[in-house]
Amino acid sequence: MTVLEADGIVTGYSEVDILHGVSIMVDKGEIVAVIGPNGAGKSTLMKAIFGLLKVKKGKLLLDGTDVTNEAPQHMVRRGVCYVPQSENVFPSLTIQENLEMGAFIRKDDYKRRLEEVYELFPALAERPHLRAGKLSGGQRQMLALARALMLDPHLLLLDEPTASLSPLMVTDILAKIRDINHTGVAILIVEQNAREALNLCHRGYVLVMGRNALEGTGESLLESEDVGRLYLGG
Amino acid sequence: MAQLVVVGLIVSSVIALGAIGLTLIYGVLKFAHFAHGDLMTTGAYVAFMVLFGGGHIGPLSFGYGMIPAILAAVVIVAALSVAIDRVVYRPLRRRKAGLVILAMASLGMAMIVRSLVYIIWGPDQRFYVLGIQRAKQLPFGIMLKPDQMFIGCTALVVMALVYLLLYRTKLGKAMRATADNMELARVSGIDTEWVVSWTWAIGGGLAGLAGVLLAIQSHLMPEMGFLLLLPLFAAAILGGVGSPQGALVGAIIVGVSQEVSTQWIPPGYKPAIAFLLLFAILLVRPRGLFGVKS
Amino acid sequence: MESLLNPSYFASFLILVGIYGVFALGLNVHWGYTGIFNFGVAGFFAVGAYTTAILTKEPSTGQYVEYIGGFGLPFVVGLLGAGVACGILAFIIGIPTLSLREDYLAIASIGVAESLRRVFVNERWLANGTRGMIGIPQPLHGIVDPSDYKYVYLCIVAVVLIVIYIAIERGIRSPWGRVLRAIREDEMTAAASGKSVFAFKMQAFVLGAVIMGVGGAMYAHYVKAITPDSFAPFFGTFLIWVMLIVGGSGNSKGAVLGAFIVWGIWTGTDWIINHSPGGLETRIFYLRNLLIGLLIVVVLLIRPRGILGEEKRVSLFFGKEPPKEQLEKDSAAPT
To answer: Bridge partners of B134?
Structure first.
């Protein structure tokens, strides 16, 4: 069952195209990683999927429905949540208020979901009235993830979740992502940290210069000589 | 001296209502709304138009006719603010116009609003009620008119309501979230245009009320709001743009300083005091007292 | 409108177009070329006008007319003195304010202008307070019949305007000018190329202020009598901004064109007052303000770059942006 299918995506920030026809797929319950060198267009792909960038050519299908160029607020209502790489929490709001904002469009009583999310993130449950601006980098990332879960999404888009985190926090975040995936959420993750991402994912895609270069299961890419040489060296 | 401080506090409460609206708009939309003073003027004149009947509510100078007048002022200025946003500022926002263009547009709107007031009501001073009210004797030798006490109490009640709105309601939290990061708010699913419209309605409503209170305190004049613009901005920036508590504290500092300064320098310099305070904070701590370092 | 065809009336019209044109050129140096959002033009207007009054008038005659100075110096000295005074004022103001972000700078400049105005109002000893200064001498007054004097003054204004225009055009095409425009486009990148952004901004700020001072002086000598009310924010600042935006900022021709058009609209609607029913004159007067307000809002919505828009880049050879190396060379060039 395919949750997300991106077919031949061409997009960019202005007249210059960053992606020249990229195709990826995410199946139900999978973690799919997109890796590649700087400037390959990984974040650009994610933004195009979520509707933050105009797709010039190509198609996006969500559960079989065409969602190409749907605005972000519509994507959210379709069950797709996006966590930006940086500035991904509301610093002057408390942890609890951040989560409440995550549940903004819910018409039902979100209290039950809030409890479920707190169970997944016990560190956040400890001090729910702490201002998010006072959190450390790792805690903020956790909060950003938690916020995105408030809507019970069935697809989560994570833009470089381990960026600028300490190695200990990286492990924690990746473990948390795995936990989230075990609750049934499909996850598309874009990462600079190639080795960790491939370890985590079921399948991965390698993008180079705005095009598909390689794809395969996480293990196969980890073992692949090309990938090893180019991206796993450090 | 104590008298000056108390009068300053009453003036501050009017400035506070205006500055809170201004800072909310500044926080959510990131632009300096130079037409805010003239929205206050509009509120005052709308109330003037709607006010009917005489009489007195207790020791106050005006009768029960003032209640619908105030309501009309608040609602009409709120609606007007939302309308202006739809017609003028939103298209500019869509076009990603810079700070300066938006500021110029608001100056243009200020001119339009003020000119309409001049055309409809003329340049002469107007009063809600004729006649002079007698001040009441209070402890510590302070003389305060009942109208002034009314203004202070109204302002306090309204500010408490604004606090409740911002910290206990979904709209208020969404406003604070949008002020923090509009893009993230959108990404989270918050309808930011809805938040923007409400921000204008609340900011405009507060301005309308402030205008009426100002007119009760002194008189109506087409320039009344514009003359308050510098103190409004001083209060908002002093307190930290985007922070309503900051706007309140800033308003108190500005209002009281202005009144107390008349002990030593001519009253004609009052806005210059506001400006000096503004200047000082910009030099020493540009983010304001409650502002967040960006 | 028939009166506009009257040569005398037309000459008066052109004189003010010329004076406002000078202001618009000065503001263009601030905003159009350097990105300094100066909303206190009225302050420089007033200081320029009062400085020349103080320098060129005869000393104060009695206890009902107080002001400092009164040196009876010639017109040219008054003009230059006005420029210098504004330049010094700009320098003093600029030190704390030029590094502020745009909107704070605007508010600060409003504050400065407003405070200056109140100083002139409250300090009677300085420039006669609200009564203002009258009898400001006019240059070359004796050479023609008084009723024809305006043609002489028009020539003077034209000469000053042209000199300033040429000076600015030269300046803006020089390496110094290129740095200014780079600062306007992208301050951070410009800062990365070396020379102090602040120094350049200050130079532009002072230069624009000097020009505005000259404009203020020319206004004073034309109207012969000035009071603090002559420099109300509408005429002293707002109108000039409207002129610049309508004509096209970043563009000297645009500045002057804007002055012509906007002052033309203002003067052209004069007939509204003359033909309005008695008693309503003061109210109808504001119909023109309304018109100007509408004008700026409409222009911002429809054609924010103004009629003439921004000038094309100085050298087509360099394309849209001067390359980094050229920028570095420009910053290093002696100014």
So the answer is: none
Q: Which amino acid is at C300?
A: L
CB of C125 less than 8 A from some CB of B: no
User: Residues B211-243: pLDDT tens digits?
Assistant: 999 999 888 999 898 889 999 999 999 999 988
| Residue pair B41/B225 in contact by the 8 Å Cβ criterion | yes
Bridge partners (DSSP) listed for residue A189: A33, A158
Indicate whether C144 belongs to any domain: yes
Query: How many C-beta neighbours within 10 Å does residue A233 have?
Result: 8
Does residue C331 surpass a pLDDT of 50? no
What CATH code is assigned to A2-84+152-231? 3.40.50.300
What count of Cα atoms within 13 Å lies in the side-chain half-sphere of residue B45?
24
Architecture in CATH for domain B2-284: Orthogonal Bundle (1.10)
Q: Which residues pair with B142 in a beta bridge?
A: B138
Domains of chain B by residue range: 2-284
Interface of B with C (CB under 8 A): 31-32, 88, 91-92, 97, 99-101, 103-105, 107-112, 114-116, 118-120, 122-123, 229-230, 233-234, 237, 266, 268-269, 271-272, 274-276, 278-279, 282-283, 286
pLDDT band at A230 (very low <50, low <70, confident <90, very high): low
Going by C-alpha positions, the residue among C13, C30, C34 that lies closest to residue C185 is C34
Tell me the backbone φ, ψ of residue C223, rounded to 5 degrees: -85, -15
Check if the beta carbon of residue A223 is closer than 8 Å to that of residue A203.
no
Written as six digits, the tokens of C158 are: 């034209």
Per the structure, the complete domain to which residue C83 belongs is given by 2-232
ipTM of predicted assembly, 2 dp: 0.89
Of residues A36, A13, C112, A58, the one with CA closest to residue B276: C112
| Chain B nearest CA to A5, separation (Å) | 21
The answer to whether residue C280 scores a pLDDT higher than 80 is: no
CB B269 within 8 A of CB B258: no
Q: Is A25 helix (H, G, I), strand (E, B) or coil?
A: strand
pLDDT for B41-98, tens place per residue? 999 999 999 887 777 777 777 888 889 999 999 999 999 999 999 999 999 998 888 8
Q: Is the residue at C93 inside a domain?
A: yes
Point out the residue among B179, B188, B292 whose CB comes nearest to the CB of A104: B188
Tokens of residue A150, six digits: 């408030």
Q: What average pLDDT does the structure give for chain C?
A: 82
CB count in 10 Å sphere of residue C143: 9
User: The sheet that has A2-12: what strands, in order across it?
Assistant: A17-27, A2-12, A55-62, A65-66
User: What single-letter DSSP state applies at residue A94?
Assistant: B
- DSSP class of C318: G
The count of structural domains within chain C is: 1
Please report whether residue C128 resides in a domain: yes
